[in-house]
Each structure stands twice: as C-alpha cells, then as structure tokens.
Specification:
Blueprint (H helix, E strand, L loop, with lengths): L8 H14 L9 H30 L8 H27 L6 H27 L5 H24 L6 E3 L3 H13 L4 H15 L4 E3 L4 H21 L5 H42 L1
Antiparallel strand pairs: 1-2
Length: 282
Amino acid sequence: MTVTEPDTSQSTWVSELEEDGHDLPLSTRLSIADALTLGNAICGFMAVYFTTTGVLVPHLMGTSDGGMSKNSAANAVTLMLMASVFDLFDGLVARKLRSSAMGAELDNLSDLISFGLAPAYFVVVWGLVTDDAHGKVAALAAVMVVLAVVLRLARFSCTTLRDGVFQGMPSPFGAMTVVSLVLLELPFVPTVIGIVGVAWLMVSRVEYPKPRGRLALITFCWTLVSMGCLAAWTLGVPSGHQLLQAGCALQCTAAAVIPCFATTRRVNTIRAARREARAATR
C-alpha cells in the first residue's frame, strides 16, 4: 500500500494570499480626505457629461436654440464649483486628520479632470456652438489650458516651495476664470486671448497664497455666491443675467489684479533685500 503525502503547496499559497489581503498597508486605504478628493473627480466628470448632453448633442441634432444652453451650462459650471469646494476641503481635512500615501496622487488626477479637462472641454463646445466663434481656434486654446494644468500639477509634484504659497495660478482659480471668460459673452478674439493668458498664468512663477484660515473662508463664500449667481441666471430671476455678468467680471478682474499685486510685492522684497545687502557691505 502506497501512502501519498497531501499536497500542501496550494493551501499554503491560498493562506498566504488571505493573510496578505488582511494585512494591506495603511497607505493604500482610503481616508476621509481621499473620499473628498474622489468627489472632486466625480464632479469634474459630470461637468463634462452635462456639457455634452445638454449643449453639444442638442446643437449637433439641431434641437438647440443657438448658443450655450442656460440650464446645462449652469449645471456644468456649478459642478466645477462643487469640485473646487471638494478640493478646498480635502486639503483642510488632510491636515486635521490622516491622509493616505495616495492622497497627493489622487488630488493631482482629480484636479486634472475637474480643472483641466472639464473647463477645456467647455471651451471646445463653446467654440462649436457659438455663431461668431471658430471651432479650431477654440480647440487650440483648450489644448493650452489642459497642457498648462498638466505642467502645473507635474511641477507641483516635484518641486518644494516655501509654505503657504503656490507657484502659478491655482488650477481651480484658473478653471473658474476660463469659464467666466466664456460666460461673459465677449467677442471671440478677446475671449481666446484671455483664455490663453490664464493658461500662461497657471505655469508662471507668480506666487499665490494658499487658501487657509480666513482666505479659505473667503474662497468658500465666493464659491457659494457664484453658485447663487448661476442659479439666478438659470431660473430667469430679474437682473439674473446682469448678476452673472458682474460675478464673472469680478472673477476675471481678480485673476488680472492678483498677479500684479504679487509681482509688485516680490519686486519690493527683492529690492529691500538688495538695499540691506548693500548697507551691510558698507
């Protein structure tokens, strides 16, 4: 009688897999901040969805009344604003609570969707559905927006700056400025020039303060006001269109003024440092 030993290699391999499944490193487990970051990505994707189904598809089927549809455009922009709220709070939560090792990567990927792809796609559709626009030129401007966000996020991942500042216009602020330029309904050429200018500011070396403390509260309140302007415009509230135009104009003005103040402050700091160095050598 021949006695054969049981093959334990397979059972050992299965048990090792089970142990590995229970001992996943904490760095791969999603945190609350990561969940907020994923909400950012979802809002960006849904903004693309509403821009497609509510603006582009009716235009291609000939069922739109011309131009950007109010409801769908407002939904898309509101979702981008919601993405900026998620982006604001995931950083605050990550500093208060723990954040996984995937947090920075998730944040960059989500920002690329919500503040790179979504506003650029909004510009492309605007160039296709607006009567006085040129689709290919608008697509080129949109490409520059996407490339600017990609370069900005890549640079952010591999450089270290002093605490409390961003180098270049933050991508949520840039995305909202691009959308505001479109909603202002300016002539085509000035709008494209403004969009290209925003793309340049995002990859510039101008320093912007990070939204913390009081500035974070101001940013959140401004986002809520912007949503209110969009709602008033969509619902046809009296003077709702003028209210939206005023909000977009303020957004574009802030985008133009902040770099001027930041550059002036940096130049004054450099000059003061040089004066101190000269005084020390005398």
